[in-house]
């Protein structure tokens, strides 16, 4: 178990340079939609920050959230575990087992009472006294109650911990429940809570929220379901790489038809993107390599409550939502997509009103594709996003 030394001292011990620290802080500032100038301030605060102890509880889950966490790349799991956090207890990653593991947990709770960060992974069964999942002779609910007593804050990682997840699918025989619902009902103590739903969540969402908590000693701005706005403010549909096909009313009707082979919109194959808040289409998995929609599969809506009981994964949303708008009546989100791209990525260096650009807006996508603007070479926009951005900028002239 790590002693509570400052982060700066830990970095010095591991010979991590100031340059590396600034690079890390720049990534965090970008992911959390902070101004570029915030990177230097983050580095200063990190130097004096204490390594927060972390206790990670795994309940009714498939280990997918831990798998996602171990694939985080900005920051990496190695830096989070050994340089920025003190991961004192984790069922899957710890070397200890049995009595030794439980002794480690109790010691960590005692030494850091009131200051440790509690991470919950998996739903909590409450039916029949919680007998469906136990650890060291205690039900998941009992263990959560015990660990919450000294926790400073809680992170519910994955849809199971946030909303009950797949274990809560009807008829929910185990009484699988999310952390927020248990707090609201008074069955567990109330603590500052952040939900990171997804099955699993995007790795960068996990690592960046941990970094934000470390730097500011609080969670980033949240929505009404306690999800960070930096990752869950927009729907998958709004920033989907196939969005322009939706506008053009070009839909795949079957998984093997010409539309599917041409990459057309998956709306009629049951895509839940329009009703799912997540950043899959932006940050993706495996260091930004791909996402389900990029790979040709419709969004299942896995970051929303009750996605498992939403009437079948491959049923068109036309059955529960108004039909897709006709070609000559684009949805409001279509009109706003370019503005969102601009406001989330460009206004830190450019005017909030792009009408004053000397270059015609519809020519900007080609300039960005060419890589001739040095400061924009690392801009990670898809061709579809560039086209949407160009239409927005062109409309401002």
How is this structure best described in words?
This protein starts with 6 loop residues before the first helix and ends with a helix. It has two domains: 7-230, NADH:ubiquinone oxidoreductase-like, 20kDa subunit (Rossmann fold, 3-Layer(aba) Sandwich), CATH 3.40.50; 332-395. It is globular. The chain is built from 17 helices and nine strands. It is 37% helix and 9% strand. Residues 322-335 have low confidence and may be disordered. The protein is α/β, with parallel strands linked by helices. Helix 2 (18-31) packs across helix 3, helix 15 (332-345) crosses helix 17 (383-395) and helix 16 packs antiparallel against helix 17 (383-395).
Following the backbone from N to C, one meets helices and strands in this order, namely: HHHEHHEHEEEEHEHEHEHHHHHHHH
Q: Give the proportion of residues in helices.
A: 25-40%
Q: Fill in the CATH topology of the largest domain.
A: Rossmann fold
* Main sheet makeup: 5 strands, parallel
CATH class membership of the largest domain: Alpha Beta
| Beta-strand content bin | 5-15%
Domain tally: 2
Average of per-residue pLDDT values: 81
Helical run tally? 17
Write down the Rg.
23 Å
């Amino acid at each position: 178990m790590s002693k509570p030394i400052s982060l700066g001292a830990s970095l010095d011990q591991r010979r991590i340079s100031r340059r590396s620290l600034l690079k890390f802080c720049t990534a965090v500032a970008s992911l959390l939609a902070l101004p570029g100038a915030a990177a230097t301030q983050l580095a200063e605060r990190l130097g004096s920050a204490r390594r927060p102890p972390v206790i990670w509880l795994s309940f009714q889950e498939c280990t997918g959230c831990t798998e996602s966490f171990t694939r985080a790349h900005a920051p990496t799991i190695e830096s989070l575990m050994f340089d920025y956090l003190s991961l004192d207890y984790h069922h899957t990653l710890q070397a200890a087992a049995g009595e030794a593991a439980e002794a480690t947990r109790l010691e960590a709770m005692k030494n850091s009472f009131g200051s440790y960060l509690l991470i919950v992974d998996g739903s909590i069964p409450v039916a029949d006294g919680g007998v469906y999942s136990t650890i060291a002779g205690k039900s998941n609910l009992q263990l959560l109650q015990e660990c919450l007593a000294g926790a400073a804050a809680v992170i519910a990682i994955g849809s199971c911990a946030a909303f009950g997840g797949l274990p809560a699918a009807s008829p929910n025989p185990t009484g699988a429940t999310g952390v927020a619902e248990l707090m609201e009902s008074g069955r567990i103590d109330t603590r500052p809570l952040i939900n990171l739903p997804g099955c699993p969540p995007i790795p960068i969402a996990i690592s960046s929220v941990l970094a934000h908590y470390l730097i500011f000693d609080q969670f980033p701005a949240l929505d009404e379901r306690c999800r960070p706005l930096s990752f869950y403010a927009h729907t998958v549909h709004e920033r989907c790489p196939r969005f322009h096909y939706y506008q053009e009313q070009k839909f795949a009707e079957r998984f093997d038809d010409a539309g599917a082979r041409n990459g057309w919109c998956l709306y009629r194959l049951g895509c839940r993107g329009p009703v799912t808040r997540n950043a899959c289409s932006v940050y993706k998995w495996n260091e930004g390599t791909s996402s389900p929609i990029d790979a040709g599969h419709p969004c299942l809506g896995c970051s929303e409550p009750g996605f498992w009981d939403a009437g079948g994964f491959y049923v068109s949303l036309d059955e529960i939502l108004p039909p897709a708008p006709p070609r000559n009546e684009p949805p409001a989100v279509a009109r706003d997509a370019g503005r969102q791209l601009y406001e989330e990525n460009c206004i830190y260096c450019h005017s909030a009103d792009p009408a004053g650009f000397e270059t015609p807006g519809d020519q900007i996508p080609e300039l960005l594709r060419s890589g001739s603007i040095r400061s924009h070479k690392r801009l990670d926009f898809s061709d579809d996003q560039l086209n949407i951005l160009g239409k927005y900028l062109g409309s401002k002239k």
